[in-house]
Amino acid sequence: MNIRIIVIGIIAALALVGCGDRLRIEGDGAGGVNISVSLTEAEVNQLIQEALAQGDRALRDVNADLQPGQIVISGVYDQADGTSVSGTITLAASVSDGLLDIQVRNVNIAGWNANDSQLNEWNSRIEQGLNEAASRDDNFTIVSIAITDSTLTINTNINENNS
To answer: Mean pLDDT across the stretch 73-78?
Structure first.
């Protein structure tokens, strides 16, 4: 599926649910379009809840805490044996050469912490997946991403002339 269509669909959905004042679309002067979307912490949490409702039902009470430069996601996982464990994952996001770069900084699940080797392996897998997704459409570029304690802002560019 064309990533441009996905992005336009997400942007349209955000505009319809009341993000219009935090959605900017403008021409870039080179035949493309710059799009900026800012989400509040509550909106990020809502998107995560909706995404989880489609998938793993064993994960509950999920909360995303926006912090400068990172997102700390916490929740409870109901295991197959009926026990539950709490945990957190800390993610950082940046942009490198027009591609989204997500780094897992820390994982703590029921007192277990991921070591550097595990974090490096996860980060490598994430990078590979993101690069594969991004390579499907040369016309779409992520310009920047910023995370504050209250807002997640993503700036993108769609340009038909990049191919």
So the answer is: 88
